[in-house]
Amino acid sequence: MGEFELIRRYFASAACAAGGEAVALGIGDDCALLAPKAGEQLAISTDTLVVGVHFPTVCDPFLLGQRALAVSASDLAAMGASPIGFTLALTLPEADPAWLEGFARGLNQKAQECALALIGGDTTRGPLAMTVTVFGGVPAGQALTRAGARPGDLLCVGGPLGEAGGALPLVLGEMTAEPSVAEPLLARYWSPQPQLDFGQALRGKASAALDISDGLLADCGHIARASGVALIVEADKLPESPALEALLGAERAQQLKLGAGDDYVLAFTLPAEHLPALSANWPALRVVGRVEAGSGVRVLDGAGADITPRQGGYLHFME
Ligand code: ADP
Ligand code: MG
């Protein structure tokens, strides 16, 4: 199978490659052409996944296709952008039809879920890796950046934390668990749900936002730095996760909620006046802390004692 046949069979003919409202020209020419709505800015983000670094050598290509798209789409959600399209740069060691079929199916399914059109890409030979670049539209000046948090704002998250990290020992085959525990965690890892609608609902409300890819504390550190404020995480307000707690126990579960990456849930700061209306429409929203004057990220227990993890990898959360 030649390069063009491969592109045609698995990607150009996929349902997600049929274009979209803001796609003036899709796959097949030297460039795709995007036509964002008048008054919109383009939001663009790119992510690379490399075998052995970002996913295991042996894994289901369908799940990998879902994940490759989801982690990039989540960046659009974090900016409050509405989805337009994406490109796929794929490096393959060989053209394995079974692998390509599974990968393309997972990618296509997630792309359709996210309303992202496949508009082009590149196909090369080498160690397995994939780069997805996503394009979205956001009304000029309304993108959610990391820089607007103000003392007095609430610190919120859009869903459960630590579950993708908790799934890692299952993904790597180091642990097993019964389906009621394993399945929800594995789904979080392999098929993150980019919070695109939620991100758009936060426009004009959230003062700062991002998606949690490196763990709550690390990513809160980005907001604290960019906004010039301190973020306080209240440990007893972290969302409950029955599956995570069943697999690893309460203490380890809390560590993962604070420090594990890969959740792709939104974290944001919010002036309190917006909370009632948002919570009513988005029941997974949780207030997990607050913004104060100062710098850095601190974790407090229910009694207000500072329990910020300070050892090892956590050091870089401190200013
Ligand atoms: P060029 O040589 O102009 O870069 P290519 O031969 O690499 O073009 O690709 C031909 C067309 O197929 C282009 O429109 C490109 O965007 C698209 N394409 C290549 N690889 C992929 C892929 N993996 N997924 C989707 N579209 C792809
Ligand atoms: Mg090319």
Descriptive account of the structure:
The protein is of the alpha+beta class and 319 residues long. The protein has two domains: 3-139, PurM-like, N-terminal domain (60s Ribosomal Protein L30, Chain: A); 154-300, Alpha-Beta Complex (Phosphoribosyl-aminoimidazole Synthetase, Chain A, domain 2). It contains ten helices and twelve strands. The strands form three sheets. It has a six-stranded mixed β-sheet. Helix 2 runs parallel beside helix 3. Residues 312-319 have low confidence and may be disordered. Bound molecules: adenosine-5'-diphosphate and magnesium ion. Adenosine-5'-diphosphate (ADP) binds at residues 7, 11, 27-30, 88, 90, 118, 120-123.
Brief description of this entry?
With 319 residues, the protein is of the alpha+beta class. It has helices at 3-12, 61-79, 97-114, 163-171, 179-190, 196-201, 216-227, 242-248, 250-259, 275-281, and strands at 23-25, 33-34, 40-50, 82-92, 117-125, 129-139, 154-157, 208-211, 230-234, 266-270, 286-292, 296-300.
What are the main properties of this structure?
319 residues, alpha+beta, 60s Ribosomal Protein L30, Chain: A, Phosphoribosyl-aminoimidazole Synthetase, Chain A, domain 2, 2 domains, 6-stranded mixed sheet, 4-stranded mixed sheet, 10 helices, 12 strands, binds adenosine-5'-diphosphate, binds magnesium ion, ATP binding
Query: What's the overall geometry?
Result: globular
CATH fold label of the largest domain: Phosphoribosyl-aminoimidazole Synthetase, Chain A, domain 2
CATH class of the largest domain: Alpha Beta
Number of strands: 12
First-to-last CA distance:
53 Å
Poorly predicted spans? 312-319
Strand arrangement across the biggest beta sheet = 8-10-7-11-9-12
What is the CA-based Rg, rounded? Answer: 20 Å
Residue share in β-strands: 15-25%
- What's the architecture of the largest domain, going by CATH? Alpha-Beta Complex
Helix content: 25-40%
Q: Assign the CATH superfamily of the largest domain.
A: PurM-like C-terminal domain
* Small-molecule binders: adenosine-5'-diphosphate, magnesium ion
Would you list the SSEs in sequence order as H and E?
HEEEHEHEEEHHHEHEHHEHEE
Count of all domains: 2
Biggest sheet record: 6 strands, mixed
Number of helices: 10
In round numbers, the mean pLDDT is: 94
Structural class: alpha+beta
Q: Give the oligomeric state.
A: single chain
Binding site for Mg(2+) 5: 214
Catalytic activity: thiamine phosphate + ATP = thiamine diphosphate + ADP
Binding site for ATP: 121-122, 146, 213
Function: Catalyzes the ATP-dependent phosphorylation of thiamine-monophosphate (TMP) to form thiamine-pyrophosphate (TPP), the active form of vitamin B1.
